[in-house]
């Protein structure tokens, strides 16, 4: 998945909700995020992402200056990683948990 996303530099919206990608998928998405500089919306609702995947996403989020909304509803993410994701999200970004 990460390889496919790397070339989509003009991508503005990415919807992966209800796909069961889990922590491995979230880590792959996080690896591709630095290339998705135009991304405005990322929907990862109900994808089975836990704390490991959320931590990987948090590490990549500061590079997404145009991100406006990140959806992570219905995922088993611990409170510490929720706080890390919120802190890492660009200022204009709304994190839906």
Describe this structure in words.
With 97 residues, this protein is of the alpha/beta class. It has a single domain (2-92), classed as Leucine-rich repeat, LRR (right-handed beta-alpha superhelix). It has helices at 2-6, 22-32, 51-60, 79-88; strands at 13-15, 41-43, 69-71, 94-96. It has a four-stranded parallel sheet, with no helix packed on it.
Rounded radius of gyration (Å): 12 Å
Provide the residue-averaged pLDDT.
Answer: 90
User: How many β-strand stretches?
Assistant: 4
Helix content: 25-40%
Order of strands, main sheet, comes to: 1-2-3-4
CATH architectural name: Alpha-Beta Horseshoe
Largest sheet: 4 strands, parallel
Beta-strand percentage range? 5-15%
Number of helices: 4
Class from secondary-structure proportions? alpha/beta
Kindly identify the CATH topology.
Leucine-rich repeat, LRR (right-handed beta-alpha superhelix)
CATH superfamily: Ribonuclease Inhibitor
Helix and strand run: HEHEHEHE
How does the overall form come out from the CA principal axes? globular
Reading off the top of the CATH hierarchy, the class is best stated as Alpha Beta
Taking pLDDT < 50 over at least 5 consecutive residues as the criterion, the unreliable ranges are none
Task: Label this structure with key terms.
four-stranded parallel β-sheet, Leucine-rich repeat, LRR (right-handed beta-alpha superhelix), 12% strand, globular, 4 helices, single chain, alpha/beta, 4 strands, 97 residues
């Amino acid at each position: 998945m990460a390889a496919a996303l790397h070339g989509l530099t003009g991508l503005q919206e990415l919807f992966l909700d209800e796909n069961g990608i889990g922590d491995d998928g979230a880590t792959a998405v996080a690896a591709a995020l630095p290339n998705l500089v135009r991304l405005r919306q990322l929907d990862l609702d109900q994808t089975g992402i836990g704390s490991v995947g959320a931590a990987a996403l948090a590490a990549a989020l500061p590079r997404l200056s145009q991100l406006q909304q990140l959806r992570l509803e219905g995922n088993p993410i611990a409170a510490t990683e929720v706080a890390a994701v919120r802190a890492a999200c660009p200022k204009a970004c709304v994190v839906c948990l």
